[in-house]
Amino acid sequence: DLDKMNSSLLVLLCALIQFLGLDAVYVNIQRYRGYIQRTHNNLRALEGAADMKYMTTDYGLENLSQRWADRCVFEHQMRGYGENLAFISSTGPTPDPGYVIRESIRQWYNERPLYRFGTGSCGAACHYTQMIWARTSRVGCAMSYCAALSDGRGRVYRNAQYFVCFYSPQGNFIGQTPYTPGPACSRCPMGNTCTREGLCFGPDVMGRRRRRSVAATYKSTMTKSEA
């Protein structure tokens, strides 16, 4: 079927990249936009927050994420955006993009038990807190295949799919909590409506969807490699 054909083409392309010695190649994950947005919102709705905003896809953030992923360096840019990074490398077949996305988001959210609400620090759960930061309303993700992915400290991972998500507005501020506990939508900004998921939805959420430049946030990290 089409998925198997695309997977086979990806394997052949990655082999060609390695043969030619190229650093990175764009991996089209537009088909997963809906999954990424929907999964974030479903998880945000589980928090019991009074002021949790609905999250939408931002194409400008996608472009920024792609440029960062294309560098094939697993490090944070720290220039004003929320960042969740992940990669999966393999000595066997190139990891499927859909699997990389699902596993990355799952691992980020699985930091939830590590977070202690009210401490004013994300601690070891910064991926999780960025995902569920109430004021964050836009996300844009991208992926690159890296024949050699550097961690910026001398270690190199071969045959890696590098997944990058940028968020706006910023989250993970020291001294703040991710959201205000309470009944869903009970503390939404003025002019917002409540979605069926129990999230705040207003002009500030949709109005900037296609902006090329957006303000915001912090850093978080995750690595995963498979033999």
Total helical elements: 6
Q: What is the level 1 CATH name?
A: Alpha Beta
Amount of beta strand: 15-25%
List how many beta strands DSSP finds: 8
> What is the CATH-assigned architecture?
3-Layer(aba) Sandwich
Query: How much is the radius of gyration in Å?
Result: 18 Å
The level of helicity is 25-40%
Give the name of the CATH superfamily. CAP
Reported by name, the CATH topology is Pathogenesis-related Protein p14a
Q: Any idea what the shape is?
A: globular
Structural class: alpha/beta
Query: Which spans have pLDDT < 50 for at least 5 consecutive residues?
Result: 13-21, 207-227
Number of individual domains:
1
Q: Care to give the gist of this entry?
A:
Residues 31-175 form the SCP domain. The protein is an alpha/beta fold and 227 residues long.
Describe the fold and architecture:
By secondary structure, this protein is α/β, with parallel strands linked by helices. The chain has one domain: Pathogenesis-related Protein p14a (3-Layer(aba) Sandwich), CATH 3.40.33.10. 29% of the residues lie in helices and 20% in strands. It contains 6 helices and 8 strands. Strands 1, 2, 3, 4, 5 and 8 form a 6-stranded mixed β-sheet that branches. A two-stranded antiparallel ribbon has the order 6-7. Helix 2 (33-45) packs parallel to helix 4 (97-109). The protein is globular and about 50 Å long. Residues 31-175 form the SCP domain.
